[in-house]
Design a protein that fits this description.
By secondary structure, the chain is of the alpha/beta class. The protein contains 11 helices and 11 strands. The chain is elongated, with a radius of gyration of 21 Å. It starts with a strand and ends with a helix.
């Protein structure tokens, strides 16, 4: 089998490369370069996949355009300026226009396959011109572009996480590669059906009747949020023990999910701000990993200074390997 060369911008911990390795084997994947600003993510990446070139700043245009050609380029630009929870500044924000820095590389070196992932909020009308210009540029560079929105919960991940994807195939790949591309279908049913699938085994000391302790601090808010969630679930004839409650938010944005996590964010994961009613406690690091579809083997726990609070730093950079592997299978 031909060795696939891979490059990633906004690399995170490079889960796409891990997906390819799981699919075709380590000997058939060559991670040529990664570009990632987060120190902890670069530390993890340097200890695991060890790309041949690892840059810190995508703004270093001179270095960027000198990066070698690859078969597959993966882009996951920051979502803050497009997210519904952000200020929706788009290209006028601090990170909204970073996609154009990545395209500068494509103008010099056309990767055979380009995959771009972003939040669905990027498709709002106010950002229409950005994507119109991006698609026009990609087509001028010789790419055929496929668009879709997929949800992680249909790819064996206990988390509702909708994402917008572009898959761009260059004309050099041939007509067969373009005509035969199909999107992964995932499963018919959501993975958010049973919290026992990702929670640790129940200890004798744990009880679903346990609530956050009363105090004069934020824990009083946590207690009220859990009680509010239980009340709403019972009102709708649901099972409270199947709920994960966001206890890091305000009462205005109170949220919970049955059978899985609410959309996981950096802030919530860093503070372990999810309450598992079935256990009467906050979820732990192992359970957060499972909720993100992240296998602990991807993190060099023993060989790095990786701490629990750092998990939040990678929470927005990971995606279930099953889904990514199915994308990779099309290439």
């Amino acid at each position: 089998m031909t060795v696939l060369s891979v490059g990633t911008f906004f690399s995170g911990i490079d889960v796409p490369a891990h997906a390819l390795i799981d699919l075709v084997g380590k000997d058939n994947v060559r991670l040529v370069f990664g570009v990632e600003k987060s120190n902890i993510c670069r530390h993890i990446l340097g200890n695991t996949l060890k790309p041949e070139v690892l840059l810190r700043d995508i703004k270093h245009l001179e270095k960027l355009t000198k990066l070698p050609w690859v078969d597959i380029l993966w882009l996951s630009p920051p979502c803050l300026d497009f997210s519904a929870n952000g200020k929706q500044k788009g290209v006028l924000g601090t990170s909204g226009g970073l996609i154009w820095d990545a395209i500068q590389y494509l103008m010099v070196t056309q990767a055979t396959i380009v995959v771009l992932e972003q939040v669905p909020g990027a498709l709002r009308r106010r950002h229409k011109q950005l994507w119109k210009d991006v698609l026009k540029t990609l087509k001028q560079l010789g790419y055929t572009v496929f668009k879709n929105i997929l949800d992680a919960k249909f790819f064996k991940t206990p988390q509702g996480r909708r994402r917008f994807f572009l898959v761009c195939i260059h004309s050099s790949a041939g007509a067969d590669a373009i005509n035969n591309f199909t999107w992964p279908t995932g499963t018919k049913h959501s993975a958010m059906v049973d919290v026992e699938s990702f929670l640790d085994a129940k200890l004798p000391t744990e009880s679903c009747r346990t609530l956050p302790k009363k105090s004069l601090t934020s824990k009083s808010r946590e207690r009220k949020l859990v009680k509010k969630a239980i009340k709403n679930i019972l009102k709708n004839n649901g099972n409270p023990s199947q709920a994960i409650v966001d206890v890091g938010c305000s009462h205005k944005f109170a949220t919970h999910r049955l059978g899985g996590f609410p959309t996981m964010t950096r802030t919530r994961c860093s503070g372990h701000n999810y309450w598992a009613i079935a256990r009467g406690r906050k979820v732990n690091t192992r359970e957060l990993c499972r909720g993100m579809g992240l296998h602990p083997k991807l993190i060099p726990w023993k060989n790095s200074r990786f701490l629990m609070q750092h998990l939040g730093r990678v929470s927005e950079t990971v995606c279930r390997l099953d889904a990514l592997g199915q994308y990779s299978n099309q290439f």
